[in-house]
Design a protein that fits this description.
about 425 residues; alpha+beta; Jelly Rolls; nine-stranded antiparallel β-sheet; six-stranded antiparallel β-sheet; 7 helices; 20 strands; about 35% strand
Length: about 425
């Protein structure tokens, strides 16, 4: 019996040893027409270590499908980018919102089981609405996985649902126990609430680890008085830009994208400039190409006719696709974000403000004052928040609309800009 067992074990050892040292013949050897990406997919699937293979058969099928997409031809314009994800995201899958050239984004689903260096090729149908991007048909995304296991979150306000900090929620509990009704009171729209109001403002959905500023109808302080004085001084002079936004004849070249592109449009309709978005958890920006400011005050009237959020974009770099965005929602919430071509970067400030008129078809006057790294935000001429941030120093202005739960249409009128000293 001992000899028989030993013989079987020795036979099993020889088979495993042979497999361990045997090289895998790549698929391209049998079919030269197959691309290098296809070879890489099969090598990944046939890796000797189980943990190095695709996590699921679906991940393998998706990777093979991507690798079999046609290569670039003379008639095809290909955009290439790299996405950095964590090991957790590589194992479980994730998604990213990417900026294409022009005023819009595309959502990229990253399947579970991707590997470092894997290439995803996506067919991009239609035009993005920007002359530089007309004819774009292929997006090539290279995956880069961070060596650590910390999740790299990429939220575009826009991709996955985001939650408050645990600390912020604790703050709400404390404030609620103190009877701070203005913070958590029910705000019904003029037509009645479509859905129960969340405990936290629905536009305040940033990833864990984000610094949070909550404004609760505070009593005037020295800093608030100073900010209100700044507002009066910054908007008291003669504007360098006055545009009623009834058409595009003022010369600032606002984006005009009347046909729905990636869920959104930018168009002059019925005496106003409309930004729309019908893709959930995505926002659409509409920019004024012939603007470029460093130190300025930018003001515009925004009316959320349907949907969830509207706001402004400023210091937008059309080459690097970097910008700040300030959002307000129909339930009185606000958020100031830093964004780049990869999507959401971080939130600088967020909360609720009694200055924001709640509900649909309410006109809110939004103002940003940007002087160097000091950014101050106002709604209806009332101070909302201010931050110090050196990420971006100059760029174009624009407007935006975001769909959190339902298609959103925001009408903008009476844009103004004042230049300020540095």
């Amino acid at each position: 019996m001992i000899e028989e067992v030993s013989h079987l074990e020795m036979r099993r050892w020889k088979v495993c040893s042979k497999r361990e040292h045997r090289s895998v013949t790549i698929a391209g050897t049998f079919n030269p027409q197959l691309s290098r990406e296809v070879d890489e997919v099969f090598l990944h699937a046939l890796a000797k270590a189980p943990e190095e293979r695709f996590a699921t058969i679906a991940a393998f099928a998706n990777a093979l499908k991507q690798a079999l997409l046609p290569e670039k031809t003379e008639q095809t314009t290909t955009l290439r980018t790299t996405l950095v994800i964590s090991q957790h995201e590589a194992r479980n899958g994730t998604s990213r919102s990417l900026d294409l050239p022009g005023a819009q984004r595309i959502n990229v689903d990253i399947p579970a089981g991707v590997r470092d260096g894997q290439v995803l090729r996506l067919s991009v149908r239609g035009k993005t609405g920007d002359d530089a991007s007309d004819g774009v048909e292929m997006l090539v995304v290279t995956i880069s996985i961070t060596p650590g296991d910390e999740t790299v979150r990429q939220v575009s306000m826009l991709s996955t649902p985001r939650t408050w900090l645990l600390g912020a929620m604790a703050l709400f509990v404390v404030l609620a126990s103190m009877g701070t009704y203005l913070l958590v009171g029910a705000h019904a729209t003029p037509n009645g609430p479509v859905r129960p109001r969340p405990t936290t403002p629905r536009s305040i959905t940033t990833p864990p680890g984000t610094q949070t500023t909550v404004v609760v109808n505070p009593s005037p302080s020295a800093s608030m008085i100073a900010e209100q004085k700044l507002y009066s001084e910054a908007t008291g002079g003669k504007p360098v830009l006055i545009d009623p936004l009834v058409n595009n004849l003022a010369g600032y070249q606002w984006d005009e994208i009347p046909v729905i592109t990636q869920g959104g449009t930018c168009a002059f309709i019925d005496g106003a400039y409309h930004a729309t978005q019908e893709l959930r958890d995505v926002f659409y920006r509409c920019m004024a190409k012939q603007t470029d400011y460093a130190n300025f005050a930018y003001q515009v009237e925004a009316t959320i006719q349907t949907g969830d959020e509207g706001g402004i974009v400023f210091r937008f770099d059309r080459v690097l696709l970097t910008f700040y965005s300030f959002h307000i929602s129909t339930d009185g919430a606000f958020r100031l974000d830093v964004d780049n071509r990869e999507g959401f970067v971080r939130t600088l400030s967020q909360g609720t403000s009694p200055a924001i008129k709640i509900g649909h078809n309410q006109t809110n006057l939004i103002t940003v004052i940007a002087q160097g790294p000091h950014l101050s935000l106002f709604v209806n001429k009332q101070y909302v928040t201010d931050v110090i941030d050196k990420t971006y120093s100059r760029g174009s202005i624009g407007v935006m609309a975001q769909d959190d739960y339902s298609p959103t249409n925001v009408a903008f009128t009476n844009a103004k800009v004042w230049l300020l000293p540095s």
